[in-house]
Amino acid sequence: MSIRQIPLIIGGEKVISKSEQWLDVLNPATQEVVAKVPMATLEEVDAAIESAEQAFKTWSKTSITKRMRIMLKYQQLLEANTVEIAKLITLEHGKTLPDAEGEVGRALEAVENACAITRLQLGDMANNAATGVDVYTLNKPLGVGAGITAFNFPVMLPAFMFPAAIACGNTFVLKPSEQDPSSTMLMVELALQAGVPAGVLNVVHGGPDVVNRIIEHDAVKAVSFIGSTGVGTHVYNHASKHGKRAQCMMGAKNHMVIMPDANKDRAINDLLGSAFGAAGQRCMANPVTILVGEARSWLPEIAERAKTMVIDAGTNRAADLGPVVSPQAKQRIIKLLDSGVEQGANLLVDGRNVVVPGYENGNFVGPTMFSGVTTDMDIYTQEIFGPALCVLEVETLDEAIAIINANPNGNGTSIFTSSGYVARKYENDIDVGQIGINVPIPVPVAFFSFTGSRASKLGDLGPNGKQVTQFWTQTKSVTARWFEPDHIEGEKVHTTISL
């Protein structure tokens, strides 16, 4: 059986790369090669950007109503192809089919936000701001935008970028993760079917050389990135150095606080789902929980429920978690879990040596849970990005808040409580950009902006919501005065700046 070759998309056409370097795309449950993805040549990257640059000349002048209608059609096509897209996510990423379908649903929310572009891109106006003078703002497209995405959400993360960017009148070059590109390619193909013109949306694949070429190209005006802190910091600094607008959503170490007055069953189930779902490969997962006061007595029950979670290939709809994305990811996760034991944490649940019958070659790591964790341990300070849960225990809410605020990351945090006073105190005192109250993964619906903070984010504007149009447009201010056709000013020269 021939192996699929993942194409580039340049100028509205699928293009088979001329690159001599192709990487295997593996099914993480079996290690079977399911496709090959090229590391695009720099000439191909240039061709994609130049195609976008040419398309911008006409797309930027296309009416906002027409752009909205294309987004509406795109939303319909994505929804109709949810099952097929989810199968590709599971095949190459490994997450369970229900989780993959949920990812498509979150991508749909972002596209639906882009469908509101006729309202989101409105400017402001002050009539008669001075005598006979009107002042107004125009939110104009920037030019060519670029997006660089991580493997963990191959559909949702691109949806946080290109739909809004092109709805605002920009053109786009997307560089998805090379680990699971097929679902991304299908969503791009559906965008073209929806009516996105040739050259408006392009796709290239590659590593650091391709990323740097995108950033450095004169035609690229803005770069959006979602992924690891190391790469995101490079992207932001390199883009800023070259005069580009940049936003980088990066690493995390999220905490869930459980108060003793919380609904016990709901809190435990939501904790385990947020810690171990998608095998922990979410930047908004909760890999740390802080049990406050009497909630510390729940620790044995949390561990026992963790042991009952089902580990299997993602095609098993009864599975709670599938494999991690690659052997390298598994190796890194196991090394960090081993360090937890070596540094003195109590290993309550051990998923390091799990084997799934029929999938003996899969990259499986089972739910792993530590108590007695201190904030100087590697399992606490580093983002494990696997199915691991660190438990800390404190006496008071103030102690929990102090621990979280001392952590450099600020992507998300949650608190489970039945007290409105406690919840309000938490949201006011915590220094984290996204807060969940009895919600384990506090990613807001897409008509609100993604607002991670501190070391989890570089750039002042996040994806989605109102901020997304601010990022993908430049504001032009116009000050205008119109005179009567027979107006006579006289001979006096005005040298003041007053109006």
Describe this structure in words.
The chain has a 7-stranded mixed sheet with strand order 15-16-17-14-13-19-20, with helices on both faces. The protein has a 6-stranded mixed sheet with strand order 10-9-8-11-12-22, with helices on both faces. The longest helix has 18 residues, at 42-59. The protein has helices at residues 42-59, 64-80, 82-92, 97-114, 117-120, 156-159, 162-167, 182-193, 208-216, 229-241, 264-276, 299-307, 327-342, 378-381, 397-406, 420-429, 467-471; strands at residues 4-5, 8-10, 13-15, 22-26, 33-38, 125-130, 133-141, 144-149, 171-175, 201-203, 220-226, 245-249, 255-258, 288-292, 346-349, 368-371, 388-394, 409-410, 413-416, 435-437, 453-454, 457-458, 473-481. α2 (64-80) packs antiparallel against α4, α2 (64-80) crosses α8 (182-193) and α3 (82-92) crosses α4. The relative contact order is 0.14. The mean pLDDT is 97. The chain is built from 17 helices and 23 strands.
